[in-house]
Amino acid sequence: MSDRLKVALQYLLPKQAITALAGKCAGAKLGSTTTSLIRWFVRRYGVNMAEAANPDVASYPTFNEFFTRPLRDGARLLAAADFICPVDGAISQFGIIEKDLIYQAKGHQYSTTALVGGDAALAQEFQDGSFATLYLSPKDYHRIHMPCDGVLKRMIYVPGDLFSVNPTTARAVPGLFARNERVVCVFDSPFGQFVLVLVGATIVGSMATVWHGVVNPPRLGAVREWRYDGERIALQRGAEMGRFLLGSTVVLLFPKDALAFNPDWAPARSILMGESMGMSTPARFGRSD
What we know:
By secondary structure, the protein is of the alpha+beta class. About 20% of the residues lie in helices and about 30% in strands.
């Protein structure tokens, strides 16, 4: 099947219904059927179970518990960098936000305002800033960690489509990451405010954070917001902040001059949680180094 046809079919498929069904199946305790599915998935996608805290595929009661499995101690080390990579996966795109536009793929851009659910004031914080779009494939570890120390200020659920977020679809569907369902998490950090966006996709049954639990479902079709001004939810660099129940994409936004990316980074490069994403820049903090 051609890439063009694969993408065209996504406009026709009942993605919400497919995703709801996949979520129910992934959360069901189906005994030997669940184990057989997990064994097939490990073989099909080349999942490295040696990195898992529990490598025994037969011990997972549901597919979701397998998919969100923790890593064994020492499987990921944190680099000596101001900003570390928050996930395992591959770099989709990264770089400078051109005024308020984020580069998605050749011929495709989308605005920071659209990404964060229409909040122009929030988007303004990242005018000419930096972004990183990181894709988690089916074989990857699917917990999301903090790129730097942060204090949670807001969380916004934005309803939307459920297109696949694989590279083929990213090249073909305009505004994909600002079009799909997403959870926008806003943090204060030593380097200024930053945003970490969990982007949903076809068969991503739900997204969850460590402070809230499962955010979706329910899928009510309206923007929902939670503010944490009266609480202090502080998460350290490298701490888990959320997870995908079936895989997707993370988009990060940083203010202007906050971050100089790791020079080894390049689109399509594989990444591991904990590796260097970059350093803070002298220009923002008045340093001469």
